[in-house]
Structures are given as C-alpha cells and as structure tokens.
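Table S5 (text form). Sequence records supplied for joint modeling of the two-component complex.
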Amino acid sequence: MNLDLLPLALADGFSYAGLLFLVALGLTLIFGVMGILNVAHGAMYAFGGYAAASLVQAIVNRGGEVPSVVLVLALFVAAIVVGVVLGCLLEIGLLRRVQDKDPVLQLLITFGAFLILDDVQLLIWGGTPYSASEITGRLGTIELFGATFTAYQLVFIPLVALLAYGTLQYFLRYTRVGRQVVAVTHNAEVATALGIHAKRIRLVTFIVGAILGALGGALSVPNTSLVPGVGTDMIVLSFSVVATAGLGQITGALIAALMIGMARSLAVYTFPEFEVVVPYLIMVLVLLIRPYGLFTVAQARKI
Amino acid sequence: MIAGILSVIGAAICLVFGLIFPWMKVPIIVGLCYGLAALGVAVLMRAGQVSFGHAMYSCIAGYTVAFFARAYPALDGLLLVAAGVVAAVVAGAIIGLFVVRYREIFFGMLNLALSMVLYSVLGKFYEITGGTDGLRLERPPFAGFHFDRSGYETALLVTALLASLVLGALVQRYFGSAAGEALAGIKTNETRLEYLGMSARRILWSGYMISAALCGLAGALVVLLQGLVTPELGYWVRSGEFVFIAILGGSAHALGAFIGAVVFQVIQLVGTMLLAGTWKMLLGATLILVILVAPTGITGVLPIKRWGKSREPKISLQPIAGER
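The corresponding structure-token record, covering 627 residues in total, follows.
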C-alpha cells in the first residue's frame, strides 16, 4: 500500500469507528440490561439516518440563511425523536410481552419487527439514496500530514462518540437512574425486591439504546448516502463489534469498534474486495480464542 | 402413521396438480425446496438453536452444481445434485466444528456473519463467480435422459417429491433415535446430557451436518430448476425465510417444515399482490403473531405430534429459577 494513503485510511477508520461505536453501544446496553439481542437496532440506524437527512434537507430547502448549528442540531433532534418513538413502540408493544420467553424467540420477535420496519422505511423514503452533505461542507476542513480531511469526519464524529461514552459511564455510575439500571442488569428480581421499578428501567434503557442507534444513522448521513439494506449491514456489523468485545461490555465495545473500524478502513485502501469480510474475520478470530468475547468476565455455570 | 399417510396424500396431490397444470410445476418444486431447507433448520431447532445463515449451504451447493455443470456439460443432473450436497456437507462439517461451540444468540449470529462473508465474497470475485449476475448453466441430462423443458421440470418435480418424502421420513426416524433424542436434550438441559456421558458438541455437530445437507439439496435443486445461480441464493433474507418456515411449521414433526412452506408461499403470493415490493412486512407480522400465539408452531399446536412416536421435548427440566 502507498504509505501516503495511511493517514487517510487511519482518519477514515477513526471516524467510522466512532459511528460503529455509537450503534454498538446502544446494542450492547440493551443486551446488558434486558438480555435481548435487538435485531431491529439496524432499523433504528436506518430510520435515524433517513429522518435526519429529510429534516436537514427540509431546513435547507426553506431557503434563507441557516446557521450551521441548527443543521447539526437537526441531526440530534431527528435521532432523539426516532429513538423515543420507535423505542417506546417496540418495548411497550412487543418486548414487554415476551420478557420471560427464550432468548432466541425474543431475537426472532425483534427480527419480525425489523422485517416490518425495513419495509416501512422503503414505503416512506423509497429506494433513492439520501444524504445531507451540506453539513460536511460547512464545518470546513483540516490539514494534517499533508492530507485534507473534513472537520466533520475527523473531529466531530469521534468527539460525539467519546462524549456519548463518557456521558453513559457517568450516567451509569453516578446518577440515581443509572445505578438502578446497573442493579437491574445484575439481578432484576433482587432489584425489584429493593423497590426499583424494573419495568420502567427497562423502558428507559431501551429508549436510550434506540437513540444511540438512531444517532449513529443520523451522524452517518453528512458523509455517506443511505440506501435500502443499510440497516441489515449495520446490525451484523455492530453485532460483530459487540461480540468481539463481549456482550454487555461498554468499554470493550469502544476498543472493539476502534479495532474493527481501523481494520476495515485499512482493507478499503489495500484489499477493497475484503472490506466487507474483515469485521467478521476479526470477530471469528477473537471468538476462536475467547469464545465469549475479549472482555467478558468468567461466569459461574448454573446447572 | 397418520402423518405419513397425510404426507403421501400431499405428495400425490402435488404430483397430480403438477401434471394437470404444467405452470404449477415450478412453484411446487420451489415450495418443496423451501420445505427441505426449512426441515434442515428445524433439525437444529430441535436442539433449541436457530441458525440465521443456513442459506449459505444452499448457496454453496448451488455454486458447486453450476461449476460442475459448466465444466462438464455432459454430467447427469442427479450427479450434480449429489456433488452439491457433498459440498454443502463438507462445508457444514468444517464450519460446524467452529459454530457448535456456541449457543443461542451467538450460534445464530455467527452463522449469519459467515453467510454474509460468503455472500459478499461471491459478489466480489467476478472472474470466478460471475459477481452479482451469477452463473448460468445449460440444462443437463437428467437420470440418463435428455428431456425437453417440460419433461425436465416433471423429472425435477418427481425427484423433489421423492426426496421430500424419503428425507422427511428419515428425519422423523432420526428425531426418534438415540442421537435425535440427545439432540433434543441440548435444548432441555445440556449439562445433564454431558453427565450422561455424551458430547453435546459432537451431537450438535452431526445435527448441523444433516441440516447443511438438507439446505444444500434444496439449493442444488433450485439451481437446476432455474439454470442460474446468483449470490442472492445465500442472502440473509433467504436464511430468514427458512427460519420463518421452520418456526411456522414447528419442529415437533418433519411434516411441519412442508406445511410451513405452503403457508409461506401463500403469504408470499397474497403479500406480493397486496403490498408489491414491501411484502416482507407481512412476513414479519406473521412471525411476531406466531411467536406470541403459538411459539411451538403448527405441528406443536395440532395434535400431529401425538401421531408420530417422537415428541417435542417437554420443558420440565428448566434451569433453576433466578438464572438470567
């Protein structure tokens, strides 16, 4: 590989890892607390992305001078609206009913929901690609190692990802609701006995996770275009991050997302045929050596 | 016994309809292939494991058929099918060594990830696989005869029907055998199974190869029917459809997969008429409904499970309360 491309590849990987981490964080949080692998998480990503692109386009099309801050805020607003609406719908409408069922049946329920949402998305936004490249242009560029990067890609996305990580850690450790979430994760029955409203905690967690997934989608539209099928790719990709890290591991997901994001972008610049395969190869290699992920703590076997 | 008679009657109806209405041959063969593949997924569901990537075995068998048919155009169709199934079983044996170490979510998603790898590799290496356009193959001789199109389809129909009947019966035998009961034991309580001196991994591995063979057979037949193989054959949507049919039919009886396939095709027909390109919505809604109302599927609800000898394992030996 041409060494001049290395910084470019690393910067791409860095920004991609940021997006990947946001989505994987939502997935792993929901799994950690509820024990459900939410396949519909891919739909959150797609809906977040499409909604954000539509909102930004609507604002731009209104004409007049729009400050960049408004456009960036629009991304977050779209993600939060999508996360809250879809999150409530799924949790209250479906997941609550199958709480005591087999994990595989729970997964299948979210898979059914994903099939429905995938087609709803096709009905609303059709098959044409959507993007919101206005934002990238407005945030300017940065010169680094003789190459030009967009500030959006190099600074903004990683910053949001780290901020999300920091906020979530603070939330889980130092806030009242966050501590309750941790308690429910450890043992829902005991937590309920101690007076924690486990049902509400589950709903809150699911919504937070859904918002994170939608945010990943919303932040992707300024520098990529969305096409149908993007949700599927993202769910499998973010699962490979979460599985590499170990299900439910938040800090692990950060490291795994960096690993997979970087490796994927290096592959894009060296062996583009293998771009899609690299994340899975990493996951398979890690799981061969550590069957339940890199950062999973050993658990006692219950007979 | 009753289920066996029902199966034979069903097969006879399929054959009669196929012969009277020639346009029905193709949908019936496709439906039987769906049934065979779903039967493969149902074998693993006996062990409580759901694979979201089994279309990769249809795909592997399909490409093997295409490669051989293009390299040796005189090769008999039945031999091509055999080659496809062997390739699927070999692939299943190798991949199985890896995936049988995992359960439930990991098992399902690892299969999915591997099938996505295969799907994208097939799409990228244009020189060998024809990329997303896939590979075409000429109609091969079948069972020693050079058929015209109609005769070829009839021959495939008869083959698919016979294969479904025989394999359905064999799988039902397998469910009732010691190995099959042990497979169901993985779902009930794996630790106790190990205490009985059996290796859960080895049992699941043999089940995995059986399921790969069934999915491979389905893929090989479909490719022979269409004269074309594309990576779409191994796309996750196919795997999802197999799981859907298997869940719908239930794993209490081998007949379930074929009943599920019929229901699936009806849903597909109605769905495409009503919703055109977005008919998968109907699939999702049905899946949710089935899981909420009848998680054991059609054969789990109908008294069909009392007709055969073997039964769905009773879940009385649940892990001690408090887990998960």
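Note: Chain B has one domain: 2-307.
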